[in-house]
Amino acid sequence: MKQLELLYEGKAKQVYATDDSERIIIRFKDTATAYNNLKKAVIANKGVLNNDISAMLYRHLEAAGIRTHFIEKLNERDQLCRRVSIIPIEVIVRNIVAGTMAQRLGMEEGTRPSNTIIDLCYKRDDLGDPLINDDHAVALGLVTYDELKGIYATTRRINEVLTALFDRVDITLVDFKIEYGRTSDGEIILADELSPDTCRLWDKLTGEKLDKDRFRRDLGKIIEAYGEIDRRLKRLEE
User: Fold this and answer.
1) Which of 3, 8, 57, 122 is close enough to 194 for a disulfide, judged by CB 3.0 to 4.6 Å?
2) Splitting the chain (238 residues) into consecutive groups of 10 residues, what average pLDDT does each group show?
3) What are the backbone dihedrals phi and psi of residue 186, each rounded to the nearest 5 degrees, phi first?
């Protein structure tokens, strides 16, 4: 597979074309951002760990029958993935109240609601990625109601699979955000990444935060936390 021109560069990843029009290469960078890009830093080897963690999680989801863009991990920073057109909606799954939800609703962080909460955000940096509902998503022409029904069903299944996986390594999956994309034949599949950048992960015994909140909240030991997630997941693949 030959890498060609840079197609897109985001906050934490670069996307390259290949000599196969249906395949792309995603490269994980060491940059860290928070608060809609207001806080920035370079954290050595973060991209290496995120690539490894995301590949493991995608392999697990594929084994559970969930269609994703992931094909294979190429090297320490690169993944080969199916080319998709990203739907500009972030789907956020909240098993435990934390972060902006706690602030927005005046709830105590760590509260476990009786239901699983799913939020939608419109991916527009210039608008601050606002919360939207199903009707907004359809009115914006991003998805249909039938497509949303499928996205919600897949999202709940992803949550079930990942919650059980992390439970096996004594980690609580607090919340996570995912994105979906359309393939060239119109199928909607999971895309982007799954890593401590996109998931809140707490140690089940100590409550220690092992995710991007260590950067957001200036807690330090960011690479150590990401490395701990990587090591625990690798134990399941041995």
Assistant:
1) 57
2) 92 96 97 86 97 98 98 98 98 97 95 97 94 98 98 98 98 98 97 97 97 96 98 90
3) 90, 0
